[in-house]
Amino acid sequence: MYTRTSKNYTKKLNTDLAYAAAFIDGEGYIEYTRRPKKNRYGKVYNTISIRMEICNTDHGIIRWLRDTFDQGYLVHIKPRRVKNGMSRPQLRWQLTHNKVHNVLKQIFPYMKEEAKIEKAKQIFKYYEKR
Protein backbone atom coordinates (compact mmCIF):
# COMPACT_ATOMS: atom_id res chain seq x y z
CA MET A 1 0.00 0.00 0.00
CA TYR A 2 2.43 2.63 -1.16
CA THR A 3 1.96 5.43 -3.61
CA ARG A 4 4.65 7.01 -5.70
CA THR A 5 5.17 10.75 -5.51
CA SER A 6 8.08 11.69 -7.79
CA LYS A 7 10.96 9.54 -6.56
CA ASN A 8 9.84 9.30 -2.93
CA TYR A 9 7.54 6.60 -1.62
CA THR A 10 4.96 7.53 0.99
CA LYS A 11 2.39 5.41 2.78
CA LYS A 12 -1.21 5.87 1.65
CA LEU A 13 -3.37 7.48 4.27
CA ASN A 14 -6.73 6.01 5.24
CA THR A 15 -8.24 9.39 4.38
CA ASP A 16 -6.85 9.09 0.82
CA LEU A 17 -8.36 5.62 0.44
CA ALA A 18 -11.69 6.84 1.86
CA TYR A 19 -11.70 9.82 -0.50
CA ALA A 20 -10.88 7.58 -3.48
CA ALA A 21 -13.65 5.15 -2.47
CA ALA A 22 -16.16 7.99 -2.17
CA PHE A 23 -15.19 9.38 -5.56
CA ILE A 24 -15.43 5.95 -7.20
CA ASP A 25 -18.78 5.37 -5.45
CA GLY A 26 -20.12 8.62 -6.84
CA GLU A 27 -18.49 8.98 -10.25
CA GLY A 28 -17.13 5.54 -11.08
CA TYR A 29 -18.28 2.53 -13.04
CA ILE A 30 -17.43 -1.06 -12.10
CA GLU A 31 -18.19 -3.90 -14.50
CA TYR A 32 -18.19 -7.64 -13.93
CA THR A 33 -19.97 -9.51 -16.71
CA ARG A 34 -19.96 -13.01 -18.14
CA ARG A 35 -21.05 -13.31 -21.74
CA PRO A 36 -20.55 -15.58 -24.72
CA LYS A 37 -18.17 -14.44 -27.42
CA LYS A 38 -17.36 -16.00 -30.80
CA ASN A 39 -13.83 -16.51 -31.95
CA ARG A 40 -12.83 -16.05 -35.58
CA TYR A 41 -13.79 -19.67 -36.33
CA GLY A 42 -17.30 -19.27 -34.95
CA LYS A 43 -16.76 -21.24 -31.74
CA VAL A 44 -18.49 -19.66 -28.74
CA TYR A 45 -16.62 -19.18 -25.46
CA ASN A 46 -17.78 -17.70 -22.19
CA THR A 47 -15.75 -14.59 -21.46
CA ILE A 48 -15.48 -12.48 -18.34
CA SER A 49 -15.12 -8.73 -18.49
CA ILE A 50 -13.76 -6.92 -15.42
CA ARG A 51 -13.16 -3.21 -15.67
CA MET A 52 -13.49 0.05 -13.79
CA GLU A 53 -13.48 3.62 -15.00
CA ILE A 54 -13.92 7.08 -13.63
CA CYS A 55 -14.42 10.08 -15.89
CA ASN A 56 -14.45 13.75 -14.92
CA THR A 57 -13.70 17.24 -16.20
CA ASP A 58 -11.46 17.87 -13.18
CA HIS A 59 -8.27 16.37 -14.57
CA GLY A 60 -6.41 16.87 -11.30
CA ILE A 61 -8.51 14.41 -9.32
CA ILE A 62 -8.34 11.79 -12.07
CA ARG A 63 -4.55 12.12 -12.25
CA TRP A 64 -4.40 11.90 -8.45
CA LEU A 65 -6.34 8.61 -8.53
CA ARG A 66 -4.02 7.22 -11.21
CA ASP A 67 -0.91 8.30 -9.30
CA THR A 68 -2.23 7.13 -5.93
CA PHE A 69 -2.84 3.57 -7.07
CA ASP A 70 -0.22 3.45 -9.85
CA GLN A 71 -2.59 1.28 -11.90
CA GLY A 72 -4.45 1.64 -15.19
CA TYR A 73 -4.20 4.31 -17.83
CA LEU A 74 -5.63 7.72 -18.71
CA VAL A 75 -7.76 8.50 -21.76
CA HIS A 76 -8.39 12.07 -22.94
CA ILE A 77 -11.95 12.64 -24.16
CA LYS A 78 -12.39 15.52 -26.57
CA PRO A 79 -15.11 18.11 -26.08
CA ARG A 80 -18.32 17.46 -28.01
CA ARG A 81 -21.22 19.59 -29.11
CA VAL A 82 -23.97 20.06 -26.55
CA LYS A 83 -27.10 22.19 -26.52
CA ASN A 84 -25.33 25.38 -25.39
CA GLY A 85 -22.01 25.07 -27.23
CA MET A 86 -19.23 22.63 -26.42
CA SER A 87 -18.68 20.37 -23.43
CA ARG A 88 -15.49 20.54 -21.40
CA PRO A 89 -12.67 18.09 -22.13
CA GLN A 90 -12.76 15.05 -19.88
CA LEU A 91 -10.17 12.66 -18.53
CA ARG A 92 -10.99 8.99 -17.94
CA TRP A 93 -9.06 6.58 -15.71
CA GLN A 94 -9.51 3.01 -16.92
CA LEU A 95 -8.48 -0.26 -15.31
CA THR A 96 -9.06 -3.86 -16.31
CA HIS A 97 -8.97 -7.27 -14.66
CA ASN A 98 -6.29 -7.69 -11.97
CA LYS A 99 -5.71 -3.95 -11.70
CA VAL A 100 -9.37 -3.49 -10.75
CA HIS A 101 -8.96 -6.21 -8.15
CA ASN A 102 -5.85 -4.54 -6.69
CA VAL A 103 -7.59 -1.16 -6.31
CA LEU A 104 -10.83 -2.61 -4.94
CA LYS A 105 -8.95 -4.55 -2.24
CA GLN A 106 -7.62 -1.25 -0.92
CA ILE A 107 -10.80 0.84 -1.05
CA PHE A 108 -13.42 -1.83 -0.26
CA PRO A 109 -13.68 -1.07 3.50
CA TYR A 110 -14.61 2.52 2.63
CA MET A 111 -17.17 1.87 -0.13
CA LYS A 112 -20.83 2.72 0.60
CA GLU A 113 -22.75 2.30 -2.68
CA GLU A 114 -24.52 -1.08 -2.59
CA ALA A 115 -24.45 -1.87 -6.34
CA LYS A 116 -20.71 -1.22 -6.51
CA ILE A 117 -20.10 -3.25 -3.36
CA GLU A 118 -21.90 -6.20 -4.97
CA LYS A 119 -19.77 -5.90 -8.12
CA ALA A 120 -16.63 -5.75 -5.96
CA LYS A 121 -17.71 -8.91 -4.12
CA GLN A 122 -18.24 -10.70 -7.44
CA ILE A 123 -14.74 -9.69 -8.53
CA PHE A 124 -13.23 -10.88 -5.22
CA LYS A 125 -15.04 -14.21 -5.58
CA TYR A 126 -13.74 -14.61 -9.13
CA TYR A 127 -10.12 -14.04 -8.04
CA GLU A 128 -10.48 -16.36 -5.00
CA LYS A 129 -11.21 -19.23 -7.38
CA ARG A 130 -8.08 -18.61 -9.44
Question: How does this structure look, described?
Answer:
With 130 residues, the chain is an alpha+beta fold. It has a single domain (2-129), classed as Homing endonucleases (Endonuclease I-creI, Roll). Helix content is 39%, strand content 37%. The chain has four helices and eight strands; from the N terminus they run ββαββαββββαα. A four-stranded antiparallel β-sheet has the order 3-4-8-5. Strands 1-2 form a two-stranded antiparallel ribbon. A two-stranded antiparallel sheet has the order 6-7. The longest helix has 16 residues, at 114-129. The chain is globular, with a radius of gyration of 17 Å. The two termini are 22 Å apart.
Keywords:
8 strands; two-stranded antiparallel ribbon; Endonuclease I-creI; 4-stranded antiparallel sheet; alpha+beta
Low-confidence stretches: 1-9
Q: What kind of oligomer do you see?
A: single chain
**CATH superfamily, please?**
Homing endonucleases
Mean residue pLDDT: 88
What fold name goes in the CATH topology slot? Answer: Endonuclease I-creI
Tell me the major beta sheet: 4 strands, antiparallel
Topology as a string of helices (H) and strands (E): EEHEEHEEEEHH
Which sequence of strands runs across the widest sheet?
Answer: 3-4-8-5
**Proportion of residues in extended strands:** 35-45%
Taken together, the total number of domains comes to 1
What is the CATH architecture term?
Roll
Structural class designation: alpha+beta
Number of E-state strands: 8
CATH class membership: Alpha Beta
Total DSSP helices: 4
